Amino acid sequence: MTPEEINAIMNLADINVDGKLDYIKFCKLYVATNEQCLKTALEKLEIDSKMRLQQLGSHLEGSPESGISPLSKLSPRIPRNIDQETMLNRGDGRNSTLQLPARKHKSSVSFSISMSTNNCGNSKLLEPNSIKEWQCAQSKGCFFLEENGEVVSHQYKIHLARRSTVYLTIRPLNLSQEEGLLSPWLSVDTALYLLKENEGQANLQLVCFTELRNREGAVQDVQRDKNQGADVLMEEAAGTQINKYKIALMYGWSGELGSGLYYLIPFTTGCWLKKEKKHITEEAKLVGRGEKGELFLTKKFRSALSDIFDIIDLDGNGLLSLDEYNFFELRTSGEKCDDDAWAVCKENFDTKKNELTRQGFMDLNLMEANDREGDPSDLWVTLHSMGYNKALEMVEACPFIIDIYAEKCRPRIKAVRMGSGGHHFEKVVCKSVINKGDATILDSHESVFLHTYKSDFRITSVLENKSENKAIIHVNNELSKNCVNNRSLNIFAVEVAPKSVMVCQHVMPVNEQQEWVYNCVYSLVP
């Protein structure tokens, strides 16, 4: 702070105007001011969110279950010299329904695409015959749902030493410990976008993306039926006898790649990974006390921590390296663990080969509970940021596993950051739709275009505005059948900035064992 700022605060807190500071009153003033600022900021956020929803049909607001931001926890689990205990609690949001006023439209175009139950098997992902002889690299990762509905995930670099035929796959990872149970996130769709930096160019260019998938498991359809309350057996939903322990649907790509460095960005449409609406009546217990008053972690909490350990153990070796642990710290506290803190961790908790064991990870969380004398607030911040609700169910995250096979060299994969990909990645998704989809003109000046990409299991629309003025497009999905979109709204509007492109919506079938009809009207608003 500048001396002027300090003097201003001192003058404000000088109650008796005698040049002296009443420290107790100053502390009370500080806390009251902080709470008022937080309240005002939350009210503004809620108003802005509602206005955006009403005007432009954005994602639904956050549910009460996700009231704490992942970055609201400022204190890391590993001891440091400075103990930051401040936590900022985010306010509850409410789901809203969009009511668009009646408007005259310049022009409109209607799309109707019928997808039969056979469509989803037309383009099957085929594994190369000789793949057992290829070399493989593997990494885990996770999609996380943010408060604003945005999805973030681990992102990777891939290195190929020489030109080779490559087979890329991604699938949701089942972590259920109990026999016969399937993880709820197995219904989430996944994809991979492979990018490469061209020589002399700063921007990454799209190389390929996963357009195919296999039908092994048929878990997806069953889980969605169960989520909607239908009493459907897995065998009935799949139409065949299948193994209940098979993995979820696998999405992939196969082709030849040159040597060099590539960037791999996982992707999900947001059609199935959404803010949870389930009301939790009873909060799960995280810690308890023994006969002598000592704290312990409950069985249910230890099970959740074990799943979290499996997620953040990216290379699957049963240990956490500093890099792996730091992805967890960045997600849950917004900070990295430095070398000194990691050295303290290794001195106090069980490690092997300079990496943290599962038991060490458990003890680290127990230490955090002891530091707070049994108060589970910080532990809940960790759980919420990892996608758990108050019932200790992972509902706003989707762990996945990536496999990379190469025929002529050993591929290498390394997680390098966690994020959404940002504006540049959205442009990459738009480019993939423009390159492979069909274009339709929305206005008489041929300046606003609708691009529609259709695969066996997804339809994506992109809006392109080539004019010097912004364009507002009204979208109506009311006549679609057996469909779900990533915006959670049947009617909405989007604003496209001048000289720009943007993803309008992703649409997928609710139940792939039934016909689904994509019937959408796009209207340009004056």
Beta strands, count: 23
- Percent helix among the residues? 25-40%
CATH C-level of the largest domain:
Mainly Beta
What share of the residues does DSSP label as strand, in percent? 25-35%
CATH architectural type of the largest domain:
Sandwich
Sketch the major β-sheet.
Answer: 10 strands, antiparallel
| Unreliable runs | 58-75, 80-103, 216-247
> By helix and strand content, what is the structural category?
alpha+beta
Number of domains: 4
CATH topology of the largest domain: Jelly Rolls
Ends apart, CA distance between termini: 49 Å
Provide a brief overview of the structure.
By secondary structure, this protein is α+β, with helices and mostly antiparallel strands.
Description:
The chain is α+β, with helices and mostly antiparallel strands and 526 residues long. It has 4 domains: 54 residues; 145 residues, Recoverin, domain 1; 110 residues, Immunoglobulin-like; 182 residues, Jelly Rolls, CATH 2.60.120.380. The chain has 10 helices and 23 strands. Strands 2, 3, 4, 5, 6, 7, 8, 9, 14 and 15 form a 10-stranded antiparallel sheet that branches. It is globular and about 75 Å long. About 14% of the residues have low confidence.
